[in-house]
Write a structure and sequence with these properties.
heterodimer; A: mainly alpha; B: mainly alpha; 3-stranded antiparallel beta sheet; two-stranded antiparallel ribbon; 7 strands; Protein transport protein Sss1p (chain A); Sec sixty-one protein homolog (chain B)
């Protein structure tokens, strides 16, 4: 029983140790790179959203027509 | 052997079901763009209201699913009532069954892959049918049906009519997703549509111009949080402080707090998405060909998170039906708050996430149970996903060998070991990190928007990568792109 419990604790602690070590080893984007990515993703994202929203605005007249 | 029989069963239904044919020749870049965009537009038109409900039916529907509507694009009172939930559920179900070898399928063989996909489609249809019947029998639509008052039950005719619409759209959506998955569009269909849905709702929540009547009052308010703030400035200078505060805290419609939470979650998600370990690789065939092979921290993307919430959402949906049909209070107890059916007790209560800091503190047990369930599910999934999807250490090492690549300073045999040390740790800790981020967002009052934000951003990266890769391979042969370039 005690062994099973030890194992139960061991797995998450092991995982946390490995995980933090791994994240420390990771290459992180530099500030410049980060800003560039945000700009690229942001533009794409907002463009997508605006087009989607315009399509959704078209719903309003249709809504009046069918309901 | 039973697995084979399951696929054989699917075979009988193959001629009956409509199917997207795999492309005969490679789909060109332009075609992909056009198909992706038009699929998106069709998807958005699925959010038209159901015919046969009252106008503004969303005000009459008592909503038990408010916590995960945005994750699965389940729009209240519209054709997308079930949203992507059936498609996503069946997709995960089949992948996991195949991964654990419960179904024997050789995905390399074309005919088997087709059967597999048809199986997914049928499951998705069956799930939509069950959920649709559940919606009708649990009297979910209640007084929102045209000509019904509170307390009256729905007639058979309108029940059939409504379920016909919801089911029809669900079927159509399954086919739309299939179009993507057969290679006509960019990325995976589910993720692409989710991203579109999230981006649209994000813009709508910020600048939404529609005036929405508030429940239990005769006031109209703008849907968008920013529009509401601006409008409050011009409306009543005397009560300025109060109305500005209102635009930060209103609960019926999107508020600015939610906007800031989403924004922070998105920015952090973008950061985490770019954490990676770079392995130096070099070619065994050519000298001096050195390169790097990045292994992302989010090795499995946002799929673990999506999986965890798919499980949770299915439990909640089925639970709601059971509670409504059996009236069992141990299972769950709903209270009506602002047009939303909020869980107040029962098993389901402990399996749902608290949606504000107040709720988080008032019942710590629920917080611990629900969040550890989500984290456990997502880590469990992340652990297995690389094996299921053919991107485990062994698979990558095989790819390396085929392409004549080796990790710098390592022999062939130790490549698997090296990758095996990195990949499982990366996928599990990535899943853990991203899930915790989404959970924090949820606890601060994200109402599913935090989760959707994380999933949306991660899949946006995937789509963008594919898009850039395709456009580079195409070498600027795209007519669409060149015509766009002329405009600039």
């Amino acid at each position: 029983m005690a062994e099973g419990f030890e194992k139960l604790v061991e797995v998450p602690t092991e995982f946390f140790k490995d995980g933090t070590a791994f994240i420390k080893r990771c290459q992180k984007p530099s500030k410049n790179e980060y800003l560039k990515i945000i700009r690229a993703v942001g533009i794409g994202f907002i463009m997508m959203g605006v087009v989607g929203y315009v399509v959704k605005l078209l719903h309003i007249p249709i809504r009046y027509l069918i309901v | 052997m039973s697995g084979f029989r399951l696929l054989d069963l699917v075979k009988f239904l193959l001629p009956v079901l409509p199917e997207i044919e795999s492309p005969y020749e490679a789909v060109t870049f332009d075609e992909k763009i056009v198909i992706t965009i038009s699929t998106g537009i069709i998807f958005l038109f699925g959010q038209l209201p159901i015919y046969g409900l009252k106008p503004n039916s969303s005000l009459f529907i008592e909503d038990p699913f408010y916590q995960f509507r945005s994750i699965f694009a389940m729009e209240k009172g519209t054709l997308l009532e079930l949203g992507l939930l059936p498609v996503i559920t069946s997709g995960f179900l089949w992948q996991i069954l195949a991964g654990f070898k419960k179904i024997k399928v050789h995905l390399g063989v074309r005919s088997e892959r087709e059967l597999f996909q048809t199986g997914q489609k049928i499951t998705s249809l069956v799930i939509s049918l069950i959920y649709c019947l559940g919606l009708i029998f649990s009297n979910y639509y209640g007084s929102s049906v045209k000509g019904l008052n509170v307390g009256e039950t729905i007639s058979i005719g309108s029940a059939l009519f409504i379920s016909y619409q919801v089911l029809g759209m669900s079927f159509f959506l399954t086919l739309l997703v299939e179009t993507f998955d057969k290679g006509y569009g960019f990325g995976s269909g589910i993720l692409c549509l989710l991203t579109l849905q999230y981006a649209t709702n994000f813009v709508k929540d910020v600048v939404g111009l529609e005036l929405i009547p508030l429940a239990n009052s005769n006031k109209l308010e703008n849907h968008g949080a920013l529009t509401n703030l601006i409008r409050n400035f011009s409306f009543n200078p005397k009560e300025l402080g109060k109305s500005v505060l209102n635009s930060f805290t209103r609960s019926e419609l999107p508020n600015l707090n939610q906007f800031y939470i989403s924004l922070i979650v998105i920015l952090v998600a973008i950061g985490i998405n770019n954490f990676r370990i770079e392995l130096p690789i070099r070619s065994t065939k050519m000298r001096g060909m050195n390169n790097i092979y990045p292994i992302k921290l989010l090795y499995t993307g946002a799929l673990p998170l999506l999986f965890a919430f798919t499980v949770l959402a299915n439990i909640q949906v089925v639970g709601y039906f059971l509670v409504k049909l059996t009236g069992n209070a141990i299972l769950g107890d709903y209270k009506l708050v602002n047009n939303q059916l909020v869980l107040s007790n029962g098993v389901l209560y402990y399996l749902s996430l608290p949606s504000s800091i107040y709720q988080l503190l008032i019942n710590p047990l629920r917080t611990v149970i629900s969040s550890s369930l989500v984290i456990f599910l997502s880590c469990w999934f992340a652990n297995y996903w690389s094996y299921f999807s053919g991107s485990s250490a062994v698979d990558i090492a095989k790819q390396f060998k085929e392409q004549g690549i080796t990790i710098g300073g390592k022999r062939d045999a130790s490549i698997v070991k090296e990758l095996g040390r990195i990949i499982p740790v990366a996928s599990v800790s990535g899943a853990f990190l991203i899930t915790s981020l989404a959970l924090v967002g949820e606890f601060l009052g994200g109402f599913g928007k935090a989760v959707t934000g994380v999933v949306g951003i991660c899949s946006a990266f995937g789509i963008m990568e594919e898009f850039i890769m395709e456009s580079q391979q195409n070498g600027g042969n795209s007519q669409l792109m060149s015509s766009l370039a002329n405009y600039q």
